[in-house]
Amino acid sequence: MKKEGYWKKYNKKFSDFDVKKILKFLIELADEIGEPFEKKSTRGRSFKLSPTQYVALYILMVFFDMSLRDLELWSKVLVGEHI
Asked: Counting CB atoms within 10 angstroms of each CB, which of 13, 23, 60, 78 has the fewest?
């Protein structure tokens, strides 16, 4: 049996560690748990994202030790919306 090549091992290992896949999993988990918070009044700006998406992004922020500025820049890539 032929040994698996380096790049095949690399792609197999790191295809599971995709930030978008992790974010999707966190959003699904937050949806199962329920709404983490809701807007208290009609005053002020409306949310750009759903509350579950905000929670998932903040979990990623803590996990990867990002600042709020980093999260702001990554939100456009991960969710498609600038927060």
From this structure: 13
